[in-house]
Amino acid sequence: MSNLTKKEKRILEQVLGMGSGYVLGYSNRTFEETVLESSGKEIYDDKYDWNSGSKANRMRAFWDLESNHTVGKLLSDIADEWDEFKDHGDPESPPDEYIKIVQRLMLSAPVPNIDAVVPNSDDKDFETLAKAVRDSIDRNEPEVGLDRLHTFIVKYFRVLCEKHEICIDQRKPLHGLVGEYIKKVRDKGLIESEMTERILKSSISNMKAFNHVRNKHSFAHDNKILKYSEALLIFDHITSSIRFIQELEKKTKKIETEAWNLNDIPF
To answer: Are 96 and 5 in contact (CB under 8 A)?
Structure first.
């Protein structure tokens, strides 16, 4: 359950216009779709059917039943589509006090960068896998999600290697994929400091150790799984690495776009 304070709940209820049973200008359908897309939760499930079962009461139930990260992500996603669903009398944009609550919830999550675990290709099965990884953190069970995190990160780096035209085969292990990728982005001049390069290179050996964890300390096999604190540390390391790589990829895309625009100049 989230640890929203009474004061924070009052602020959220006022900002979202929940006093009359509504949440902004959402209809039942759009509210259901937003919650499902944001969290994978079905807001019209019986467990959220508190008191009148209105949208506002279901939101209150969601706050009480779901984790800080899940609640924070939903509130953040609502802020992203504010213009589309704000109603008459609602603020023109999410006020600072609302944003501060969202930020606190997201930062207090056991793995702050868990929302970086998203597919880097259009693949329904890949999204299902990513959701299973995120769900293990939403349930505060990182040790249970280690094998799926490993499967996710292997697929993630395979996609990266393909995008960068790196020749690989299905037998190449995780740390080999990571090494090939790091060499490619270094050669492209995307790494600006020696320290960053050293940190990335150290991740190669870390990923090799992750192979061992997956085989010997996860539910991939009949193992005694890793204890909570160590599993949490592994999740934190992997997800922060993904977050950094996402920023690298944005830089790659920007460079490629600028190069394409220059080549398109007619002279």
So the answer is: no
